[in-house]
Hints:
Elements: H1 2-15, E1 21-23, H2 25-28, E2 52-55, E3 64-67, E4 86-90, E5 96-98, H3 100-103, E6 111-117, E7 126-131, E8 136-140, E9 146-148, H4 150-153, E10 167-173, E11 182-187, E12 216-217, E13 219-223, E14 229-231, E15 242-243, E16 245-251, E17 260-265, E18 271-277, E19 280-283, H5 285-288, E20 304-307, E21 316-319, E22 328-332, E23 339-341, H6 348-352, E24 357-363, E25 372-377, H7 383-387, E26 396-400, E27 406-408, E28 423-429, E29 438-443, E30 446-453, E31 460-467, E32 479-483, E33 489-493, E34 508-513, E35 517-524, E36 530-537, E37 541-545
Parallel strand pairs: 31-37
Antiparallel strand pairs: 1-30, 2-3, 3-4, 4-5, 6-7, 7-8, 8-9, 10-11, 11-13, 12-15, 13-14, 16-17, 17-18, 18-19, 20-21, 21-22, 22-23, 24-25, 25-26, 26-27, 28-29, 29-30, 31-34, 32-33, 32-35, 35-36
Bound molecules: calcium ion (4 copies).
Amino acid sequence: MRIVAALWLLLTVTLAGQIRFQDVAQKAGLRLELKNGAAGEFHLIELMPGGVAALDFNNDGCMDVFFTNGASVPSLRKDGPQYSNRLFRNNCDGTFIDVTEKAGVAGEGYSMAAAAADYNNDGFVDIFVAGVNRNFLYRNRGDGTFEDVTAKAGLSGIDPKFGKMWSISAGWFDADNDGWLDLFVSTYVAWDPKTEKPCGPPENRYYCHPDDYAGRPHQLFRNNRDGTFTDVSQSSGIAGSIGRGMGVAFADFNRDGLTDVFVANDSVRNFLFQNLGNFRFKEVGLETGASLGEAGRAVASMGADFRDYDNDGLPDIVVTALINDSFLLFRNLGPPTFFEDYTIRSALKQATQQLTGWSMGMFDFDNDGFKDLFFANSHFPHLGQLLGIPSPLANSIFRNLGNGKFADVSKQAGPDFQNPGFYHGAAFADFDGDGRIDVIVTAINSPARLYKNTTPDAGHWIAFKLVGTRSNRDGLGAEIQVTLPGGRMLYNQASTSVGYASSSEPLVRFGLGAQPVITRVRIRWPSGFVQELKNVKGDRVVRIRETPGS
Ligand SMILES: [Ca+2]
Ligand SMILES: [Ca+2]
Ligand SMILES: [Ca+2]
Ligand SMILES: [Ca+2]
């Protein structure tokens, strides 16, 4: 068995090409310059925007793009088209067209994040937009237009105690596995432009440290299955842990069939909310080891993904952070203690120490059967003044070597990948349907990039489009185990909440290396139903409908 595994590894390593990206945003007509509204007053919100979503709003099989955008500061008004949120339809021919006006999703206020999923199970993906002091829910009518149902749904985000909140990320998951998606909203800090004090000497103003602002509770909204939601932040225990929330990622870390919630916190320890069932959560970050960096230090965490990088069936956590923190990798070793800090052992520490990362994702970019890491990077603006280094950075791609280590292969990823920028949001989808996962990345005050994955000699692949019947329609929370000829197993799960403030394709994707056919697929649906398929041909998207009793 060990020899077979070693040979398999050798084969995939030999076959896999260098991961490469080409920026095709301009050519594809995907034009969005993220505007943060900064006008020299150094309001904290200006540092944080840029969420983007990959979603198929018209069900033609081609992934579309929704960009969030900022507003004037301090008015928080989108007082010009430069601040409009934007929806681009994928024409399925390598180009996109701006359909914002027709779709009715230009938005209002200062937007931060997008979370896409089908909350009402009608087969059309809906969009939740999180922002400063106000959130929006757009219901997809199915005819290319969206209805603002925020008030009706009860999702404007006003907290009974704290009032208006600065929501910074959000994600859909089925907390109680009743077949209807619930909503988690990550809250940053108390912020009011009228009372925000200036920081730094008068002749050299700068942004204040997050420690200068009070934290606020995260929010959980239960889907009432009738288009309305109930705020269960208090009763669920979620509001009891106050951090400075940033990215949100979901997985079932302890394999009990209930989806758990990881929240990256800025300069406060990270939270892992264990789902106890019946809308009760317990924050177990410290006791499970998923909270702190080296030497028990809280890091300035921003984005996170919660997937199985070492194919042992247990979802792991990778977190982006600030310069000098290094990013974090928590490997899930199972019970009783679960997570252990593998940042050094995975070779991520040295390689990320001088980076500041925002959105990220754990996907198999060369389809060799091992999930790699993409990081959207940039230091805070004006950091140069303080540290004597430039703030714009190039993005990073780290290849999973299959032996527990990652290698920084960014420099070999092509000339388009070397351009520095103020990169923030990133969403992942196969926009051109060639089986190689692509990336859309936003950059503050400069054009978004669409990195087409042009990796030569990428391996075989398969992607599953889930259609839940008892489970939520998107199948979010479903876990898929793929068995390759020879017995090797790969794991992934359905989640659109990936990285920072962003939302990725709902498909569950696998790189298969040299194997064009898989021996077995086992799907554990959120309903608890387990479905199996045998001898499935790869290199295509396979639609799987949940069929209990079949
Ligand atoms: Ca589409
Ligand atoms: Ca819908
Ligand atoms: Ca890989
Ligand atoms: Ca592609």
